[in-house]
Each structure stands twice: as structure tokens, then as C-alpha cells.
Specification:
Helices cover 77% and strands 0% of the residues. By secondary structure, it is mainly α. The chain has one domain.
């Protein structure tokens, strides 16, 4: 389960980094500010104090990097722990290995589909209605969709491949099959 937690944490970190990155292109894409309505917002001149939006973007960048690093460490660490335990008796039951992949597929699907729908709605509103009327920043939702949708497709592909491949017989299931024959 902690592999899933690590992967989701890392994906949220990637989405947050993407949100900040879109904010570098245009603050209005990722951050709400009634004074910023389009690509005319400029980077502060040297010597000017950073604005609230600069600070917000910087905090998002730091948070995204932190979540990405910690998430990757948790996922990788628990992946190797699961591999070590899998060689022990009862350490790799099918309901755990397939269940974890199924759970990861469901979690990334929910986050990815929801983020894509909300992000597309917000982005279309921003560009069709206009930033002065829509004022809905879309960078966070689109960033999360960019992070989660490919992860969902990957997890779904791996799950389908795993379900098509027959499971190797474990010693206990082989003994049960011999006893019933």
C-alpha cells in the first residue's frame, strides 16, 4: 500500500511542479490575481520586492519538488521491501500483488479523469470567455491531469498484461491440486 502512497505523492508533486511551470509562462494560468488578466504580466524588475504571486509560485515549486522526492523514496523503498518479502512463504499472495496494481489503477484513474475534466473546462473558459471574465486559473488541474493520466494508462496497461498472464503455481496450490487428483 505504501508503494501506492509514494506513487500518488510523487504524481501530486509532478502536478504541482507543472502548475508552477505554467505560472512561469503566465501567472494567470495558475494563480488568481484580480490585477493579472493575461500575458502582459511582467517579471518584477531587478531590485523590486517579489510579489505575492512570485512567492506563491516559489512555494508551489518547493512543495512539488519535496512531494516528488519523498514520494519516489517511499515508493522505491517499499517496492524493494515488497520484493524482499515476496520470496518468503506467503509473502506474495495474488490478491496483494494484483490488488495493489488494481488499486493504483483506480486511484490514478479517478485523479486523472477528474483533473482532465476540470482542467479542460477551466482552460476552455479562460481562453474562450477570456481571462477577465473567467478568472479561473487552470494550471493546477491541467498539471495534475498531465501527471495522473499517463500514470493511469500505464497502470491500466500493466494490469491488463498481468491479468492475461497466468499466475505461476505456488507450492501450496500445487500440493492442493495433487491432493484433489
Amino acid at each position: 500500500m505504501l508503494v501506492i502512497v509514494g506513487v500518488v505523492m510523487a504524481l501530486i508533486g509532478v502536478g504541482t511542479i507543472l502548475k508552477a511551470g505554467l505560472g512561469f509562462i503566465n501567472f494567470g494560468y495558475s494563480y488568481f490575481d484580480p490585477n493579472v488578466y493575461g500575458p502582459t504580466n511582467a517579471v518584477p524588475a531587478p531590485g523590486e520586492p517579489p510579489s505575492y504571486l512570485d512567492a506563491q509560485r516559489g512555494q508551489d515549486l518547493v512543495l512539488g519538488i519535496t512531494l516528488l522526492v519523498i514520494g519516489v523514496l517511499v515508493a522505491v523503498g517499499h517496492h524493494y521491501l515488497a520484493r524482499a518479502v515476496s520470496h518468503m512463504a506467503g509473502g506474495s499472495p495474488a490478491w496483494v500483488t494484483r490488488g495493489a496494481l488494481l488499486a493504483l489503477t483506480v486511484v490514478t484513474a479517478i485523479a486523472g479523469i477528474w483533473s482532465a475534466a476540470i482542467g479542460l473546462n477551466e482552460m476552455l473558459g479562460y481562453f474562450i470567455i477570456g481571462p477577465s471574465r473567467s478568472q479561473q486559473p487552470w494550471g493546477e488541474s491541467v498539471g495534475m491531469a498531465i501527471a495522473f493520466v499517463p500514470a493511469w494508462i500505464y497502470a491500466m496497461t500493466r494490469l491488463v498484461q498481468d491479468l492475461r498472464r497466468p499466475r505461476a503455481a505456488t507450492p501450496s496450490s500445487a500440493l492442493t491440486a495433487e491432493g484433489s487428483a
